[in-house]
Amino acid sequence: MKIIVFSDSHGNNNVINQVLSMHADTSDYAIHLGDGAYDFLEMAPLYKNLRFVAVAGNCDKALSTQAPASLVLDIDNVRIFLCHGHKHGVKFGTARLIKNAAAEGADIALFGHTHKAYEKYIPDAKGGRPIRLFNPGAAVTGSFGLIEIKDGSILLSHGVI
To answer: Using one digit for the tens of pLDDT, what is the confidence trace for 88-135?
Structure first.
């Protein structure tokens, strides 16, 4: 299972278009973590083999009826918590994000908002069970993320166009 992750495109879909043209044929999901999610969702009909999923960011006010503030996906026995991060205070640390994602039983917490690529493995976030934090960085500056799930293994990686 391969997942393409974007955040913070702020209406500039150049990077998203480039990344999707490279990875859409070999991917299963495309996820946007807010601040540009509306434009992203409008691209879905162009990529019928991908499942498009988005959460709303602090700049996606018109999107609030179409995308939730957070969402949990179960993909190949991996639970993924999606949020933009502004409601979890991620510019000031990840403690609230970890607490909320762990409460959802997440294995991975995806977030944006900071415009900085980030990855951290926390071995004991959920009562001794691990959680992975992942921010793909800002698509508006060329960043994106990839998640590969295979046979129970999780590989997180960053890319820049």
So the answer is: 999 999 999 999 999 999 999 999 999 999 999 999 876 778 999 999
Q: Which domains does the chain have, with CATH numbers?
A: 2-160 (3.60.21.10)
CB 86 within 8 A of CB 57: yes
Q: Is the pTM of this model over 0.70?
A: yes
The Cα–Cα gap between 43 and 36 comes to: 12
Mean pLDDT score, 37-63: 91
How far apart, in whole angstroms, are the C-alpha atoms of residue 52 and residue 73?
A: 12
Q: Which residues, including other chains, have CB under 8 Å from residue 97's CB and lie 6 or more apart?
A: 83, 85, 88, 89, 90, 109, 111, 133
Closest CA to 156 of 134, 126, 141: 134
